[in-house]
Amino acid sequence: VLGIGRSLGLLAATLLFLQFVLAARFMFLDRFIGFAALMKAHRLGGIAVTGLALLHPLFIYGSGMRQVGPLRWQLWPELLGALALLLLWIVAVTALYRVFLELSYESWRRLHDGAFLVAVLVVAHMMVLEPNLRHGWPQGLWLVLLAGYLATFVWVKLAKPARLRRNAYAVESLEMVALDTYNLTLRPLSGSGFVHLPGQFAFLRLRGEGIVPQQHPFTISSGATDPQRITFTVKAIGDYTRTLGNVQAGDVAELDGPYGHFGPAFMGKVQSLTLIAGGIGVTPMLSVLRNMAQRQDPLPVTLIWSNRTPRHIAFPAELEALQARLPNLKVHHVMTRDPDWPGPKGRLDRDLLVSLLGEGKDIDQVMLCGPPGMMKAVRDALRSLGVPRSHLHTEAFAL
After folding, report:
1. 3-class SS letters over the chain
2. What is the pLDDT of residues 201-257, one digit of tens each?
3. Cis peptide preceding 258, ω within 30 of 0
4. Digit-coded pLDDT (tens) for 131-163
5. How confident is the model at residue 129, as a pLDDT?
């Protein structure tokens, strides 16, 4: 039983170190695995670490080889372990139940950074209580793990931020393009600009008066042919995005990316493309359509865009112009809260999709982005129409 407890502790510590690597935004991992898969692994890994860390002392003290108390200063390594476990549970619970706990992003971020203190406490706890880790191959293994962890820390917290500041961007313009929706245009202050593929996203940090300098992920809405002009179309729906109205031309921005595997470039052979968006989920679709127009791509494309009212439609004139430039483009606007809308109305269910797309035999590749409930309903409807799961490509609002 004691051996099981030790093994569980070692496994929890190893996974804890790997957690930082999963969340470090290494480009090569995004290319091979995908950012969404990395974040899912990070989430599941956090749950696994917390569970294993809890089982570790239960087996250790359940074996009867070690006694709990009385408290004395000689037990300081065990107390470090207890403190690490407490902090780990705080980090895990606030990450899993942030919305329920009504934590602001900044508060959650500070609590989540407590994982670094947990790692320090775990190393001290292990090295004192496990003498086998201080010599031979176990020592070499842990030295390699610690070196990798420290190198990742230096890259994420020091080297990468410095590089992003050197390759900064300037705000060229900010304009309101629909109800509570802003279009932010950036240009590089130096260098070759920002190269990306349609459908990808980047982490954006703005520095200006009235703006909290936090990093947040936003999909790039501009086409991919002009790296000297990058646009983000953002809806003011959260604490951070509601401050975008304070952005001024000339403010400095930092971009980390591009990330993501969402878009025609990641689909293989595409015979036709169906774009289904809910609200601000249209941003990757805008990037795709703008890129197609710039390249005069003849690919058949259908855009189905669900909004509450016509006031929520961004770039209506540009969409009409895109239809003129792309003769194989069809655009369907669907309103969910405007009974007077002359076009299709209501939620995007199976019947409505059939009326717009047919019975499904002509549907090839699908890009789907929007609120979680809408995405699930559309995904289920398309699957019932016979669209293969591998042809349904989705992007979530939150990571």
Report:
1. CHHHHHHHHHHHHHHHHHHHHHCCCCHHHHHHCCHHHHHHHHHHHHHHHHHHHHHHHHHHHHCCCCCCCCCCHHHHHHHHHHHHHHHHHHHHHHHHCHHHHCCCHHHHHHHHCHHHHHHHHHHHHHHHHCHHHHCHHHHHHHHHHHHHHHHHHHHHHHHHHHHHHHCCEEEEEEEEEECCEEEEEEEECCCCCCCCCCCCEEEEEEECCCCCCCEEEEEECCCCCCCCCEEEEEECCCCCHHHHHHCCCCCEEEEEEEECCCCHHHCCCCCCEEEEEEHHHHHHHHHHHHHHHHHCCCCCEEEEEEECCHHHCCCHHHHHHHHHHCCCEEEEEEECCCCCCCCCECCCCHHHHHHHHCCCCCCCEEEEECCHHHHHHHHHHHHHCCCCHHHEEEECCCC
2. 999 999 988 888 888 999 999 999 999 999 999 998 877 888 888 899 999 999 999
3. yes
4. 777 778 778 888 888 888 899 999 999 999 999
5. 82
Please, which pLDDT band fits residue 181 given cuts at 50, 70 and 90? very high
Residue with tokens 């669907």: 334
| pTM exceeding the 0.90 threshold for the entire prediction | no
Name the residue with higher pLDDT: 138 or 84: 84
Cβ atoms 55, 8 nearer than 8 A: yes
What are 109's two structure tokens? 């971020």
Does residue 313 have a pLDDT over 70? Answer: yes
